[in-house]
Amino acid sequence: MNKILRKRILSPGVKDLLVETPRIARKRQAGQFVMLRVSETGERIPLTIADADPEAGWIRLIFQEVGHSTLELGRLEVGDSILDLAGPLGRPTHIENKGTVVCVGGGIGTAPVHPIACAMKAAGNRVISILGARTAELLIMEDEMGATSDELLICTDDGSKGRQGFVTNVLQDLIDRGETIHEVVAIGPVVMMRAVSEVTRAHGIPTVVSLNATMVDGTGMCGGCRVTVDGRSRFVCVDGPEFDGHAVDFAELQQRQRAYLTQERQALEADHVCHIGRDQPYAGRTS
Description:
- By secondary structure, this protein is α/β, with parallel strands linked by helices.
- Helices cover 29% and strands 30% of the residues.
- The chain has 2 domains: 4-90 and 262-275, Translation factors (Elongation Factor Tu (Ef-tu), domain 3), CATH 2.40.30; 100-257, 3-Layer(aba) Sandwich (Rossmann fold), CATH 3.40.50.
- It has helices at 22-27, 68-74, 110-122, 142-148, 167-176, 190-201, 236-239, 250-257, 261-275; strands at 4-11, 14-20, 33-37, 45-53, 58-64, 84-89, 100-106, 126-133, 151-156, 163-164, 183-187, 207-210, 226-229, 232-235, 242-244.
- The strands form 3 sheets. The protein has a 7-stranded mixed sheet with strand order 10-9-8-7-11-12-15, with helices on both faces. A 6-stranded antiparallel sheet has the order 1-2-5-4-3-6. The chain has a two-stranded antiparallel sheet with strand order 13-14.
Protein backbone atom coordinates (compact mmCIF):
# COMPACT_ATOMS: atom_id res chain seq x y z
CA MET A 1 0.00 0.00 0.00
CA ASN A 2 1.09 3.60 -0.71
CA LYS A 3 3.52 2.29 -3.31
CA ILE A 4 5.00 4.73 -5.82
CA LEU A 5 3.94 3.68 -9.31
CA ARG A 6 5.55 6.48 -11.30
CA LYS A 7 8.00 9.30 -10.65
CA ARG A 8 8.74 12.29 -12.85
CA ILE A 9 10.57 15.60 -12.56
CA LEU A 10 8.41 18.48 -13.82
CA SER A 11 10.86 21.33 -13.23
CA PRO A 12 13.91 21.94 -11.03
CA GLY A 13 13.05 20.69 -7.55
CA VAL A 14 9.47 19.72 -8.46
CA LYS A 15 8.58 16.02 -8.33
CA ASP A 16 5.47 14.26 -9.63
CA LEU A 17 4.43 10.95 -8.05
CA LEU A 18 1.63 8.49 -8.77
CA VAL A 19 0.88 6.68 -5.51
CA GLU A 20 -1.15 3.50 -5.20
CA THR A 21 -3.92 4.10 -2.65
CA PRO A 22 -7.28 2.77 -3.93
CA ARG A 23 -9.47 3.90 -1.02
CA ILE A 24 -8.31 7.52 -1.18
CA ALA A 25 -8.56 7.51 -4.98
CA ARG A 26 -12.20 6.45 -4.78
CA LYS A 27 -13.18 9.04 -2.16
CA ARG A 28 -11.18 12.12 -3.14
CA GLN A 29 -12.85 15.26 -4.49
CA ALA A 30 -11.38 18.42 -5.99
CA GLY A 31 -9.68 20.62 -3.41
CA GLN A 32 -8.90 17.89 -0.88
CA PHE A 33 -5.48 16.87 0.41
CA VAL A 34 -3.61 14.07 2.18
CA MET A 35 -1.29 14.03 5.19
CA LEU A 36 1.77 11.85 4.73
CA ARG A 37 4.87 10.72 6.57
CA VAL A 38 7.83 9.25 4.73
CA SER A 39 9.55 7.53 7.65
CA GLU A 40 9.16 6.78 11.37
CA THR A 41 11.18 9.86 12.31
CA GLY A 42 9.64 12.14 9.69
CA GLU A 43 7.11 14.91 10.18
CA ARG A 44 3.62 14.78 8.73
CA ILE A 45 3.10 17.12 5.78
CA PRO A 46 -0.01 18.07 3.76
CA LEU A 47 -0.11 17.74 -0.02
CA THR A 48 -3.08 18.49 -2.25
CA ILE A 49 -4.26 15.66 -4.49
CA ALA A 50 -3.44 16.89 -8.00
CA ASP A 51 -5.31 14.08 -9.78
CA ALA A 52 -6.72 10.61 -9.13
CA ASP A 53 -7.94 7.52 -10.95
CA PRO A 54 -10.52 5.63 -8.88
CA GLU A 55 -10.48 2.63 -11.22
CA ALA A 56 -6.70 2.25 -11.34
CA GLY A 57 -6.48 3.15 -7.67
CA TRP A 58 -3.86 5.91 -7.67
CA ILE A 59 -3.56 9.55 -6.69
CA ARG A 60 -1.13 12.10 -8.06
CA LEU A 61 1.05 14.17 -5.73
CA ILE A 62 3.11 17.08 -7.02
CA PHE A 63 5.44 18.85 -4.62
CA GLN A 64 8.43 21.16 -4.44
CA GLU A 65 11.51 20.19 -2.48
CA VAL A 66 11.80 23.10 -0.05
CA GLY A 67 12.56 21.41 3.28
CA HIS A 68 13.88 18.23 4.86
CA SER A 69 10.58 16.32 4.60
CA THR A 70 9.96 17.11 0.94
CA LEU A 71 13.59 16.28 0.14
CA GLU A 72 13.09 12.94 1.89
CA LEU A 73 9.91 12.31 -0.10
CA GLY A 74 11.70 13.27 -3.32
CA ARG A 75 14.35 10.60 -2.74
CA LEU A 76 11.80 7.79 -2.91
CA GLU A 77 11.83 5.83 -6.15
CA VAL A 78 9.33 3.71 -8.08
CA GLY A 79 8.53 0.64 -5.98
CA ASP A 80 9.18 2.38 -2.67
CA SER A 81 6.27 3.07 -0.33
CA ILE A 82 5.23 6.09 1.73
CA LEU A 83 4.95 5.01 5.37
CA ASP A 84 1.74 6.88 6.30
CA LEU A 85 -0.87 8.36 3.99
CA ALA A 86 -4.13 9.69 5.44
CA GLY A 87 -6.96 11.24 3.47
CA PRO A 88 -8.82 12.60 1.72
CA LEU A 89 -8.89 15.52 4.17
CA GLY A 90 -10.35 19.01 4.09
CA ARG A 91 -13.56 20.35 2.61
CA PRO A 92 -13.97 19.74 -1.14
CA THR A 93 -14.26 22.67 -3.50
CA HIS A 94 -17.82 23.89 -3.97
CA ILE A 95 -18.47 23.02 -7.62
CA GLU A 96 -21.42 24.34 -9.61
CA ASN A 97 -22.14 26.00 -12.93
CA LYS A 98 -21.32 29.62 -12.13
CA GLY A 99 -20.58 30.90 -15.63
CA THR A 100 -16.98 31.97 -16.21
CA VAL A 101 -14.39 30.83 -13.66
CA VAL A 102 -10.80 32.05 -13.75
CA CYS A 103 -8.31 29.59 -12.23
CA VAL A 104 -5.00 31.16 -11.25
CA GLY A 105 -1.98 28.98 -10.49
CA GLY A 106 1.23 30.51 -9.22
CA GLY A 107 4.28 28.23 -9.46
CA ILE A 108 3.61 24.93 -7.71
CA GLY A 109 0.07 26.22 -7.05
CA THR A 110 -0.84 24.99 -10.53
CA ALA A 111 -0.92 21.43 -9.15
CA PRO A 112 -3.78 22.00 -6.66
CA VAL A 113 -5.67 24.29 -9.05
CA HIS A 114 -5.72 21.60 -11.76
CA PRO A 115 -8.41 19.30 -10.26
CA ILE A 116 -10.54 22.36 -9.50
CA ALA A 117 -10.31 23.56 -13.11
CA CYS A 118 -11.28 20.06 -14.30
CA ALA A 119 -14.27 19.90 -11.97
CA MET A 120 -15.41 23.42 -12.89
CA LYS A 121 -15.21 22.55 -16.58
CA ALA A 122 -17.13 19.30 -16.06
CA ALA A 123 -19.88 21.31 -14.31
CA GLY A 124 -20.38 23.38 -17.45
CA ASN A 125 -18.35 26.48 -16.65
CA ARG A 126 -16.23 28.44 -19.07
CA VAL A 127 -12.76 28.08 -17.58
CA ILE A 128 -9.99 30.59 -18.15
CA SER A 129 -6.66 29.59 -16.60
CA ILE A 130 -3.74 31.86 -15.77
CA LEU A 131 -0.40 30.22 -14.99
CA GLY A 132 2.54 32.17 -13.66
CA ALA A 133 6.13 31.40 -12.65
CA ARG A 134 9.46 33.16 -12.28
CA THR A 135 10.80 31.64 -15.51
CA ALA A 136 9.57 29.34 -18.31
CA GLU A 137 11.63 26.52 -16.79
CA LEU A 138 9.49 26.64 -13.63
CA LEU A 139 6.10 26.44 -15.36
CA ILE A 140 4.32 23.12 -14.81
CA MET A 141 1.26 21.28 -16.16
CA GLU A 142 0.72 23.56 -19.16
CA ASP A 143 -0.67 20.74 -21.31
CA GLU A 144 -3.04 19.47 -18.61
CA MET A 145 -4.33 22.96 -17.84
CA GLY A 146 -4.69 23.75 -21.52
CA ALA A 147 -6.73 20.60 -22.06
CA THR A 148 -9.30 21.56 -19.40
CA SER A 149 -9.42 25.31 -20.12
CA ASP A 150 -11.31 27.30 -22.71
CA GLU A 151 -8.46 29.79 -22.62
CA LEU A 152 -4.96 29.40 -21.18
CA LEU A 153 -2.83 32.47 -20.41
CA ILE A 154 0.83 32.29 -19.41
CA CYS A 155 3.07 34.82 -17.74
CA THR A 156 6.61 34.78 -16.36
CA ASP A 157 8.46 37.29 -14.23
CA ASP A 158 11.35 37.47 -16.70
CA GLY A 159 9.31 37.27 -19.91
CA SER A 160 10.88 33.97 -20.98
CA LYS A 161 7.39 32.67 -21.87
CA GLY A 162 4.05 34.37 -22.32
CA ARG A 163 3.52 37.86 -21.02
CA GLN A 164 6.23 39.39 -18.86
CA GLY A 165 4.73 40.23 -15.50
CA PHE A 166 2.60 38.71 -12.79
CA VAL A 167 -0.68 36.79 -12.75
CA THR A 168 -2.35 39.93 -11.40
CA ASN A 169 -1.39 41.79 -14.58
CA VAL A 170 -3.01 39.10 -16.72
CA LEU A 171 -6.10 39.03 -14.52
CA GLN A 172 -6.43 42.80 -14.77
CA ASP A 173 -6.16 42.48 -18.56
CA LEU A 174 -9.16 40.11 -18.54
CA ILE A 175 -11.16 42.55 -16.46
CA ASP A 176 -10.15 45.49 -18.65
CA ARG A 177 -11.23 43.70 -21.82
CA GLY A 178 -14.72 43.40 -20.37
CA GLU A 179 -14.67 39.70 -19.46
CA THR A 180 -17.57 38.82 -17.16
CA ILE A 181 -15.96 36.78 -14.37
CA HIS A 182 -18.23 34.99 -11.92
CA GLU A 183 -15.49 33.57 -9.67
CA VAL A 184 -11.72 33.49 -9.35
CA VAL A 185 -9.86 30.57 -7.77
CA ALA A 186 -6.26 31.43 -6.87
CA ILE A 187 -3.65 29.05 -5.48
CA GLY A 188 0.03 29.75 -5.00
CA PRO A 189 2.35 31.73 -2.72
CA VAL A 190 0.58 33.74 -0.03
CA VAL A 191 1.80 37.03 -1.51
CA MET A 192 0.29 36.05 -4.88
CA MET A 193 -3.09 35.04 -3.44
CA ARG A 194 -3.19 38.25 -1.44
CA ALA A 195 -2.44 40.32 -4.56
CA VAL A 196 -5.08 38.49 -6.63
CA SER A 197 -7.64 39.04 -3.88
CA GLU A 198 -6.93 42.76 -3.85
CA VAL A 199 -7.44 42.99 -7.63
CA THR A 200 -10.77 41.18 -7.47
CA ARG A 201 -11.91 43.04 -4.37
CA ALA A 202 -11.84 46.29 -6.33
CA HIS A 203 -14.24 44.77 -8.88
CA GLY A 204 -16.48 42.78 -6.53
CA ILE A 205 -15.49 39.42 -8.01
CA PRO A 206 -15.92 36.46 -5.62
CA THR A 207 -12.51 34.92 -4.95
CA VAL A 208 -11.52 31.59 -3.42
CA VAL A 209 -7.99 30.89 -2.16
CA SER A 210 -6.54 27.59 -0.93
CA LEU A 211 -4.23 28.01 2.06
CA ASN A 212 -1.21 25.81 2.70
CA ALA A 213 -0.72 26.49 6.39
CA THR A 214 1.58 24.62 8.76
CA MET A 215 -0.16 21.41 9.88
CA VAL A 216 0.69 18.69 12.39
CA ASP A 217 -2.25 16.26 12.48
CA GLY A 218 -4.70 17.47 9.82
CA THR A 219 -7.71 16.84 12.06
CA GLY A 220 -8.15 20.18 13.81
CA MET A 221 -6.65 19.15 17.16
CA CYS A 222 -3.21 20.79 17.09
CA GLY A 223 -4.24 24.31 16.09
CA GLY A 224 -1.06 24.78 14.07
CA CYS A 225 -2.94 25.75 10.91
CA ARG A 226 -5.06 28.44 12.59
CA VAL A 227 -5.93 31.42 10.40
CA THR A 228 -8.19 34.42 10.85
CA VAL A 229 -11.03 34.64 8.32
CA ASP A 230 -13.60 37.42 8.58
CA GLY A 231 -12.39 38.13 12.11
CA ARG A 232 -12.82 34.53 13.31
CA SER A 233 -10.21 31.84 14.01
CA ARG A 234 -10.53 28.95 11.59
CA PHE A 235 -8.49 25.80 11.05
CA VAL A 236 -7.25 25.23 7.50
CA CYS A 237 -7.30 21.43 7.83
CA VAL A 238 -10.98 21.04 8.75
CA ASP A 239 -12.61 24.38 7.89
CA GLY A 240 -10.66 24.74 4.63
CA PRO A 241 -8.31 24.61 2.90
CA GLU A 242 -10.38 27.02 0.79
CA PHE A 243 -11.62 30.37 2.06
CA ASP A 244 -12.97 33.67 0.81
CA GLY A 245 -9.86 35.54 -0.31
CA HIS A 246 -11.42 38.86 0.65
CA ALA A 247 -11.86 37.71 4.27
CA VAL A 248 -8.46 36.12 4.97
CA ASP A 249 -6.00 37.96 7.23
CA PHE A 250 -3.01 37.45 4.94
CA ALA A 251 -0.66 39.53 7.08
CA GLU A 252 -1.21 37.21 10.05
CA LEU A 253 -0.89 34.15 7.81
CA GLN A 254 2.47 35.31 6.46
CA GLN A 255 3.72 35.95 9.98
CA ARG A 256 2.63 32.50 11.20
CA GLN A 257 4.34 30.82 8.24
CA ARG A 258 7.67 32.23 9.43
CA ALA A 259 7.28 30.74 12.92
CA TYR A 260 9.50 27.71 12.30
CA LEU A 261 12.11 29.13 9.92
CA THR A 262 14.95 28.49 12.37
CA GLN A 263 13.97 24.85 12.82
CA GLU A 264 13.53 24.43 9.06
CA ARG A 265 17.03 25.76 8.39
CA GLN A 266 18.50 23.47 11.04
CA ALA A 267 16.74 20.45 9.51
CA LEU A 268 18.04 21.37 6.05
CA GLU A 269 21.58 21.76 7.35
CA ALA A 270 21.37 18.37 9.06
CA ASP A 271 19.98 16.84 5.85
CA HIS A 272 22.92 18.28 3.92
CA VAL A 273 25.42 16.79 6.36
CA CYS A 274 23.75 13.36 6.15
CA HIS A 275 23.58 13.24 2.36
CA ILE A 276 26.59 15.20 1.14
CA GLY A 277 28.68 13.11 -1.20
CA ARG A 278 25.87 10.72 -2.09
CA ASP A 279 24.38 10.30 -5.56
CA GLN A 280 21.35 12.40 -4.57
CA PRO A 281 22.55 16.04 -4.47
CA TYR A 282 21.45 18.49 -1.85
CA ALA A 283 18.67 20.58 -3.41
CA GLY A 284 18.26 23.30 -0.79
CA ARG A 285 15.44 25.81 -1.10
CA THR A 286 13.86 26.33 -4.49
CA SER A 287 11.62 29.22 -3.54
